[in-house]
Amino acid sequence: MARKTGSHAEITGPRIRAAALELFARHGYAAVSMRQIAAEVGVQAGALYTYTADKQSLLFELMRNHMEHLLGCWEEEPRPDDPLACLEAFTRFHIRYHLDRPDEVFISYMELRNLEPEHFAVIEGLRRRYERELEAILASGREDGCFTVPDTKVATMGLIAMLTGIGTWFRDTGRLSRFDVEQLYWDMVRGAVGVPDAAAGPGRAGSGGDAALSAAAE
């Protein structure tokens, strides 16, 4: 008989994943037991195995879901034909997406070492797909002559590390707003690929970044 919408499994499964996400982010994967996850959800430890094979499977599912959702959301973003505009779109998308999901981002980077080899290979494949999206933008800009990037792969890795690192220090209660951070980091990205301020055009991020810098200095 088909399971009805809103059944026990459909409710408990997401709760288990949410609890695992929170506990892994707070305490680290190695320090969390299946019993702790069960207690957080309010079920017996043995009941967890109805929804997941083991703790490793939970970690893998969380990381795979994160990467697949990231790729899916980026695919839905408008893609300007102009490489500079496309790079700006990627930069702002990456910042917004990651700041909205600090626990998922933390786990996806800090717990890679705890994945079994076959799971690691899947996650690495998804990460490479995302990196290739940015590398293609950089290659297009270099071909058009608007970016100065000697090595697009190295630039890709550096830019993604820089943008993802925002989550380690940014707080919504801090002196900079998310908009300020977007502007400042877009200025840094633009500079990293060799685009002068004037190339951003009137009303684009160049002037906004200057305003954000002024606000940050106050």
Automatic annotation (TrEMBL):
Pfam families listed in its UniProt record: TetR_C_24 (PF17932), TetR_N (PF00440)
Chain residue ranges for the region called Disordered: 199-218
Gene3D superfamilies per UniProt: Tetracycline Repressor, domain 2
Keyword Zinc-finger belongs to the record: no
Ranges of residues in domain HTH tetR-type: 10-70
SUPFAM superfamilies with a match to the protein in the record: Homeodomain-like, Tetracyclin repressor-like, C-terminal domain
Coiled coil: none
Known DNA-binding region: 33-52
Claim: Kinase is one of the keywords in the record: no
Alphabetized UniProt keyword annotations: DNA-binding, Transcription, Transcription regulation
Annotated GO MF terms: DNA-binding transcription factor activity; transcription cis-regulatory region binding
Protein name as catalogued: Transcriptional regulator, TetR family
Natural source organism: Tropicimonas sediminicola
